[in-house]
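Section 5.1 Outputs to date
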Amino acid sequence: MLASEYTNVLVAAVMVTSFLYEFSHRFRLYLKFMLYYTMVMVTSVLCIPFIIWRPGDVRNTLAASLTILSSGLDPSFCW
């Protein structure tokens, strides 16, 4: 029964989010900014272990770009 309540809450959250995204320009801006900020933070956290072992090396940018491309996030993606 507990899983059913979580499902209802999740469905309600998705419905409210889709409604707000459709009718509120401010919500759309904040949602896009939050997604961008999340992508940047995840990329930086994934790249830190590689960058620690080679400080000041130019190949670190290659590791960062491969992380972005392998995650399926296209940097040239247009909203």
